[in-house]
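User: Assemble these into one structure.

Assistant: Restating your components, then the assembled model:
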Amino acid sequence: MGVSTSIPKGTRDFGPVEMIRRNYIFDIIRTVFRKYGYLPIETPAMENLTTLLGKYGEEGDKLLFKVLNSGDYLSKSNQHNLENITSGALTQLITKKGLRYDLTVPFARYVVQHRAEITFPFKRFQIQPVWRADNPQKGRYREFYQCDVDVIGSDSLFNEYELIQIINCVFSELGIRNIIKVNNRKILLGIAEILKEDKRFIDITKAIDKLEKIGIEGVNREMEQKGVSGNAIDKLQPILFLEGDTNTKLGKLKEILKNSVIGIEGVKEMETLFSYINLASLKSIVELDLTLARGLNYYTGAIIEVKATDHQIGSLCGGGRYDDLTSIFGLKGVSGVGVSFGAERIYDVMQILDLFPGKGEENVDIMFVNFGSNEECYSIKALTKLWKAKGISAGLYPDPIKIKKQMAYANTMNISFVAFAGEDEEKKGVITFKKMVSGDESKVRISNIIGDVRKLMKD
Amino acid sequence: MGVSTSIPKGTRDFGPVEMIRRNYIFDIIRTVFRKYGYLPIETPAMENLTTLLGKYGEEGDKLLFKVLNSGDYLSKSNQHNLENITSGALTQLITKKGLRYDLTVPFARYVVQHRAEITFPFKRFQIQPVWRADNPQKGRYREFYQCDVDVIGSDSLFNEYELIQIINCVFSELGIRNIIKVNNRKILLGIAEILKEDKRFIDITKAIDKLEKIGIEGVNREMEQKGVSGNAIDKLQPILFLEGDTNTKLGKLKEILKNSVIGIEGVKEMETLFSYINLASLKSIVELDLTLARGLNYYTGAIIEVKATDHQIGSLCGGGRYDDLTSIFGLKGVSGVGVSFGAERIYDVMQILDLFPGKGEENVDIMFVNFGSNEECYSIKALTKLWKAKGISAGLYPDPIKIKKQMAYANTMNISFVAFAGEDEEKKGVITFKKMVSGDESKVRISNIIGDVRKLMKD
């Protein structure tokens, strides 16, 4: 062998079967987004580092892939003394661009940059890969797709309802049974207020966000370490695990939070949202989950997370309302709400639960056998006619190798019909079609090849 | 304003209108590729630099975007003495990955890496962005899409015919009138042989490749500078500009090249290919163009290039046969042939010739007016019913702002119908639909909203 043919760790090649399955997921998501009136945008893979740095915390900055400046970048950097320079200082000197880390920050940048052309409320979706220099492990990659849908420039709770409808529609079309968990950062802030720990709100939400990973003891330990008082932690427990249906929980919360203006605001928002949800009959189960916190600090209102019912795998979709995302780029007072579907986890769940539609999507309908140069003209004539038919995929085996080998190829490739256009067939003006799954053979007239083949394919 | 919101030079944001037009092009190309039996693959944006370097010439190496190693890369590089280091030496020390420069080299890498799983002949297509640190100028970007279609593992000329059919089909569906120019590197090599300049074959083809840019005088001057004899240059002129139709040209070439084995082989290949082409009636004009050379050295047989008839813009698609592409990764003797469609140029031609389908693709079908919290339940009920209908896109204006402003929004967004579900309508169990283009109003029954709306949309 010559040069190594490996690819960078954490990245993947997608072969035809994976691609067709991935496109199946993306097509459904895209169609649902369009149906609900969202329009596509795309942003470049590379963003200026000034756009990306400082938006994902210190850890996130480290996980950004940075792109080396072009040309003789050292001479351009006006600093030749690199003796004893640190990696960090050198990076600043020789990189200006990075690969996007998510679709949220590029979207915020997009909205600010194009605000003069955009008609608000702006309903957009974006399906593109993102890159993170994370340590690769099962289900975690360095290149992966996100499917984001957001509406920006409206603070109506109707948008939250619409997103829940979108989630319901996407997963229902994909066939994934699911629970949509909803909470509100205002309720969490209200709880922190009545516990007199509003200064440690971020610490509390970050701890609660880990509930699934580290259990309630772990959450309590982390809050304690961050300085949350034992009294507050004790008082928090029964609130986090309030029992009953959503209405009951909201009723109890109203009582608990009666002295917190922001908390009551959160409860009222949830009441409105659930009043909308109750107008529809959804396949998804929607429930208020007070332990849902979402780690990201830019969420300011409703937060949403989706789990598969039939397989434990972390969330398939998540998001929430952000009141001030674009302010990092200087545009204040623009509220938005959105969710992001994780294509890789959805793929894994569908694979595990065997939810992809059967074979038939990825194969070719018809393969003509190649009998060699004497007969090929007749095959090519027939095939060229067939190519004019919409929705039929067809080809000729390109080389006149042994018929047995050609049939083996057709088998491996899951070809539906093999067509024989030999000397005999040419004389009679027909083509023999063999249905591979049954072995049944039929004659098709070349004069009516499209019609006859369509009939065959329906049978 | 806060932080700058610019993006790296040579890159672009795509807004909804551009996206829908770009997807229109990609969808047609993808559907045609599938119809002809080609299957999708995708490769990672980043490849190891060992895969990319040395494949695109010295100039190409410079145009690769290189990605900085992660973490404390200097300490990992085992070399702390960076004093007086050059940019080139430093790059070797601190980068291992680069962004893909085209789809051909990653495809060759893919074929070699996955050769055990692949059933040959392997018919694949790939539609992904590529990155080049070229100087941006009109129509030339640092991030742009390529749409490659190749069959590898077969040397049958039927594959070339199939690609010409694909080209014909794609441009016919897009509505772009075009000429497919075909030539054969073996014919060019034969010509070099009979001119006794086969050692300068690459110089000759590189010069001829510039014909359009620098004219025949320029080409001759360049050949002279490269050491091609005056006698050879003189003899070349009438051959390059042979007159007559393809058959006539091939006949004359047979005579001219009778002493070149490889040249006659090229002529015979073209005879076979044109005998296939003559079986079909194509919208594209296909012609043998002896001045077509294609700069890339890996082409060994047929070469193909497509030009728009109605607008001069360089080639919209190009490619050819390569007999040994995978040998750079250690897999020898695998012949392939493929073409690449340039999405950006196709977009530009379609824009200039006004070939995109009219508005109607990018807009939302229905927008409910928001009358405020008293009426919103009725609107949401109606909308929620409508969302169950396949192929209808609909929404509610999320905020109860002035009706006039909501109507202005509907106008700007090219919404087809505005729906009014007010108090009056609720009493009667109807919704008023206003067709925006005509101003016509109709009542729709909420009990049969989907059927009634479908009827409205058809009118």
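The first strand of chain B starts at residue 39 and ends at 40.
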